[in-house]
Amino acid sequence: MYHKWTLEEESIFRLAVAKYRHNWARIKARVLPNVNINSMKNKYYQKLHNNLEVGQSAARQEESSCRLSEEQVYKMIKNVISQNQ
């Protein structure tokens, strides 16, 4: 099933991948419970992984495309985690 990613979900996903790597089940359980694991894999390989192939550093690409501050994203992650506990 196709998942329409919001800006907030993409930002949270980038941070979650940086923290949990390819542990899709853990990302789903801890921070993005409403996102299908296959949608996460597709997002990673279509967007994040392709940035590496172009030769740009992932961090530089993510910083330029992320409109939310890191502090805002961490607050969102904490809210999601606290709601799921």
Description:
The chain is mostly helical and 85 residues long. It has one domain (7-84). It has helices at residues 7-20, 24-30, 37-53, 58-65, 70-84. The longest helix is centred in the middle third of the chain and has 17 residues, at 37-53.
* Secondary structure tally: strands: 0
Largest sheet: none
Low-confidence spans? 52-59
Structural shape = globular
Spatial separation of the terminal alpha carbons:
26 Å
DSSP helix fraction: over 70%
Question: How many discrete structural domains?
Answer: 1
Number of helical segments with 4 or more residues: 5
> pLDDT average, as an integer?
76
Sheet/helix structural class: mainly alpha
User: What amount of the residues lies in strands?
Assistant: under 5%
Provide the gyration radius in Å. Answer: 12 Å
Element order: H for helix, E for strand: HHHHH
Quickly describe the structure:
This protein has 85 residues and is mainly α. It has five helices and no strands.
Question: Which features does this protein show?
Answer:
mainly alpha, 85 residues, single chain
Write the layout of secondary structure elements.
Blueprint: H1 7-20, H2 24-30, H3 37-53, H4 58-65, H5 70-84
